[in-house]
Design brief:
alpha/beta; six-stranded parallel β-sheet; two-stranded antiparallel sheet; 17% strand
Length: 203
């Protein structure tokens, strides 16, 4: 089983989360570094899911936004870590030159990038609307941080009330420690990947 990991804004595919996921789920974690250009990144991620027969996607922050978008087009199991639901609003303060976390590399974050995310948010909003969504809600695990300094964990928990939600009382937006949720992560990653059998997941 190949699992796709999508990192967050100004991060990369070479982080401690990837190492933790390999410990939890095994070695076959596909973790590309995004270009930080939403249009090409979304196309690349869709191609990766299609070409690698991906059924489980883990997304952190902006990566969670992309994961939800992928879930609208493909039958996926999603593990969302502090997912950003409106990045076109919450990333306005990042306009300009941005340094990639843990690196000397930089990229330009533009109004055009925010506009692309705004367009994508229409499909994400659809996927989060009961009755319009193609998501298999019991096949989603949403890990949230009570001390998230960028996103409202309680508001996100309400959106994902039909899925499995955990609010960690101690972690911040980075959600640096996944180890204590290893069982929940494995359970979702190994859940049936198509609607109609999701009720076999046990808490």
């Amino acid at each position: 089983m190949t699992v796709l990991y999508i990192h967050g804004f100004a991060s990369s595919g070479n982080t401690s989360k990837v190492a933790q996921l390999r410990d939890i789920l095994g070695e076959d974690i596909l973790a590309p570094s995004l270009t930080h250009n939403p249009g090409p990144d979304m196309k690349m991620l869709m191609d990766l899911v299609r070409n690698n027969h991906i059924k489980t996607v883990v997304g952190s922050s902006l990566g969670g936004f992309y994961a939800i978008l992928l879930g609208e087009y493909f039958d996926l199991r999603l593990i969302l870590i502090n997912p950003s639901l409106e990045p076109h609003k919450t990333l306005v303060d990042k306009l300009g030159t941005v340094q990639i976390y843990g690196s000397d590399s930089t990229f330009e974050w533009t109004e055009q990038d925010l506009e692309m995310l705004s367009w994508a948010a229409e499909d994400v909003n659809k996927s989060l609307t009961p009755g319009q969504s193609n998501q298999t809600w019991p096949n989603i695990l949403c890990l949230l941080s009570a001390k998230d300094e960028r996103l409202d964990a309680k508001a996100t928990a309400e959106v994902f009330s039909m899925s499995h939600v955990v609010i960690d009382p101690d972690q911040d937006h980075r959600f640096s420690d996944l180890s204590k949720y290893a069982d929940q992560i494995r359970r979702i990653a190994n859940a049936p990947s198509f609607a109609g059998e999701s009720d076999q997941i046990e808490e």
